[in-house]
Amino acid sequence: MGRALAVGATVSRRRESGGLESEVLALLWSAEASLTTAEVVEALGGDLAYTTVQTILTRLHQKGAVQREQAGRAHAYTPVLDEAGLAANRMRAVLDRGGDHTAVLARFLGTLSPDEEQVLSQLINRPKSTGGGR
Amino acid sequence: MLASMGIPFVLSAVFGVAAPRFARRLPPAVATWLLSVGGLVSAAGCAVVLALLGFTLIGQSPLLAAQGHWSGGALRRADPIPVPVAFLAVVLLVALAVRFALAAVRRLRALREAYALAAALPAAGGELAVIDDPGLQAYAVPGRPGRIVVSTGLIRALDVDQRRAVLAHERAHLTHGHHWHHSLGQLAAAANPLLHRVRGAIALATERWADEDAATTCRRDTVADALTRAATAGTRMPTPVALLAVAATDVLGRVTALRAPAPRLTLWRVTTLVALVAATAAAVLLAEHDTERLFELAQAAYRASRPQPE
Fold first, then answer.
1. Torsion angle in degrees (nearest 10) through CA of B102, B171, B197, B36
2. Fewest 10 Å CB contacts: which of A20, B16, B234, B263?
3. In angstroms, what CA-CA distances link B24 with B78, B143, B168?
4. C-alpha–C-alpha distance, residues B166 and B231, integer Å
């Protein structure tokens, strides 16, 4: 129905928010190897300006979130690992303590019973064209 | 008077059952606000009534009567509240006050810890802190500023669009201050056990709110896919039991809701809940008024029993 319209309207909304930086960083983390600016632009869906992505990558590099190396005439970027490992340990410590400390953290994930998991996997396996549901 | 004292408890009990049910059928942002503010009014109202009930008994003590210039005997004779009821109210009030205070301290401590954690996370990535962990994790950590934590395991399990959905979901938790709603729900449930379901309902409503918010930056199906993938992908971290209790966020319900069109505002549900809360507040005011009249009566008796100075 109005889905195509809705998608078009929301793209600009995403751009306004500072979320693009997070998306770029997450993308670099998901990649097996280092990525050039052009590769980042392409992976993020192509409707972004090259210079926008370049600016974000430069900022991330200045802040020390990513490191870069020369790849031909361009730079290729990889995320910095050390601090992430430390942060993981700290997170783990908080989570392991459980109780109210973790109640404050809002999570994306939920937990599933085996039954629910089966229902969900049936939902996934449904053909994509009808997957929109009613 | 006994009736006006009882009504807030009945309404509160009705709210405690009806609100979580209605909330599932309302737009989650509206549902969250109705639950948290309604829970607050409901809990505060019942506490006030317990205090009023108790005071009709405590006010009969000679010490207080002398202080307040009312007649203890006249109060006892005019008081329509049976002594056991008033006594029970005092006991309940004290017990619930302790419960409330403990919950408030726990909550404050947890919030402080979250703020400290948000500040301690590596700042290089801006709002996003990636943790190097094969498990599937995505959290919003409230703070100044709040942070989003995502594990490398989750990042690798999702595609570009699904990652965008997860980030938008966590961002929604932070920008809409969902931890404040959670706090209200927790405190309301501690102060008034009739509202114990409201707390979980708020947790669910804020998850749905963040889902719907994410669905404005990408397709609804993408959010549903991300949620499904994250919940079913192979290696899941064992979840601490305490976390389950609070954040049993009903993945299946959320995915089903995302596969359907966004819920519309049903006016009768909103009106019913607002009316329940307004009626609770009105009944509390009435009870307060009745109690005041009772004490005015006792004060008149006090004045009449004393020789006039002139």
1. 80
2. B234
3. 47, 28, 22
4. 12
Helix (H, G, I), strand (E, B) or coil at A62: helix
Residue B77 tokens read as 């004779």
Burial B84-102 (b: 16+ CB within 10 A, else e): ebbeebbebbeebeebbee
The partner residue sitting opposite B126, judged by closest CB among A22, A83, A106, is: A22
B11 contact partners, CB below 8 Å, separation of at least 6 = B42, B276, B279, B280, B283
Give the whole-angstrom CA distance, residue B120 versus residue B138.
Answer: 17
Maximum separation of any 2 CA atoms in chain A, in Å: 54
Residues 73-92 on A with a CB inside 8 Å of B are 79-81, 83-88, 90-92
> Which residue pairs from B286-294 have beta carbons closer than 8 angstroms and sit at least 24 positions apart in sequence?
B286/B4, B286/B7, B287/B1, B287/B4, B287/B5, B287/B7, B287/B8, B287/B48, B287/B49, B287/B52, B288/B48, B288/B52, B290/B1, B290/B4, B290/B5, B291/B1, B291/B52, B291/B55, B291/B56, B294/B1, B294/B56, B294/B75, B294/B78, B294/B79
pLDDT digits (tens, 9 = 90+) for B50-84: 999 999 999 999 899 988 899 988 999 988 889 99
* Residues B138, A103: C-beta atoms closer than 8 Å: no
Among the four given CATH numbers 1.10.10.10, 3.20.20.70, 3.30.870.10, 3.30.70.2860, the one describing domain A1-128: 1.10.10.10
Taking contacts as CB-CB distances below 8 angstroms, the residues of chain B near A99 are 110, 240, 242
Chain B residues within an 8 Å CB radius of A67: none
Q: Is the pLDDT of residue B193 over 70?
A: yes
Of B230 and B52, which is predicted with more confidence? B52
pLDDT digits (tens, 9 = 90+) for A51-104: 999 999 999 999 888 999 988 888 999 998 877 778 777 777 777 776 665 566
A91–B133: do the CB atoms touch at under 8 Å?
Answer: yes
Q: How large is the average pLDDT for residues A109-132?
A: 59
Report in angstroms the alpha-carbon separations of A2 from A11, A133, B164. Answer: 15, 14, 21
The answer to whether the Cβ–Cβ distance between A27 and B163 falls below 8 Å is yes
User: Considering only CA atoms, which of B20, B27, B22, B25 is closest in space to residue B215?
Assistant: B27
What interface predicted TM-score (ipTM) does this complex get? Answer: 0.76
Contact B162, B222 (CB under 8 A): yes
Whole-model pTM: value is 0.84
